[in-house]
Amino acid sequence: MSTSEIATVLAWHDAVNSNDIDTLLQLSSDDIVLPTPDDDPDQGLDELREWATTSGVTLEPGRMFVHEGVVVVEERAVWASEPEPRTEAIAFRVVDDRVVTVVRHADLDEAFEATGLSKADLYEA
Q1: Of 53, 56, 78, 62, which is closest to residue 122 (Cα–Cα)?
Q2: β-strand pairing of 98-105 with 28-34
Q3: Does the N terminus or the C terminus of the chain have fewer Cβ atoms within 10 A?
Q4: Model confidence over 71-110: pLDDT tens digits?
Q5: Which residues contact residue 28 at a Cβ distance below 8 angstroms, ignoring those fewer than 6 apart?
Q6: 70: number of CA atoms within 13 Å, CB side?
Q7: DSSP secondary structure string, 97-110?
Q8: 74 in Cβ contact with 13 (< 8 Å)
Q9: How many CB atoms lie within 10 A of CB 118?
Q10: Residue 125 banded pLDDT, cuts 50, 70, 90
Q11: Nearest CA-CA partner of 77 in 104, 52, 57, 62
């Protein structure tokens, strides 16, 4: 387990929430893979920039689980288009202190099933 993976994911959240696009791009790999509603993932920094400037999302991280470069974050998300907060889980793949993949899941169980992580991988600072 690496605290640098956690630090990268937390900094990524801070950049999204503060609309700091330059920092967000620096924390992400050039070929970052992002989820889309139609299950056909977007890829690359241009797609990330577009998402970050138009999504209007605020992400409040809660519990985090980490193992071998994968970080699952249980979080509260508030979208501009849907102001009612919802709890979801997001799985991040971090390589060399850069986010390479972001996958949204409905809940922790779904994220655990997709990533192979479990409650035993809870990160405790």
Answers
A1: 62
A2: parallel
A3: C
A4: 999 999 998 888 799 999 999 999 999 999 999 999 999 9
A5: 12, 45, 48, 98, 99, 100
A6: 16
A7: TEEEEEEEESSHHH
A8: no
A9: 13
A10: confident
A11: 57
What are the respective helix, strand and coil percentages of the chain, to the nearest 5?
A: 35, 40, 25
Asked whether 104 and 90 are in contact (CB, 8 A), the reply is yes
Q: Which residues contact 66 (CB under 8 A, 6 or more apart)?
A: 1, 2, 5, 6, 72, 117, 121, 123
Instruction: Please identify which residue in the block is written with the tokens 């990160």.
Output: 123
Q: Counting every residue, how long is the chain?
A: 125
Tell me which amino acid residue 86 is: R
Q: What is the pTM of this model?
A: 0.91
Sign for the CA dihedral angle at 10, 13, 15, 18 comes to: negative
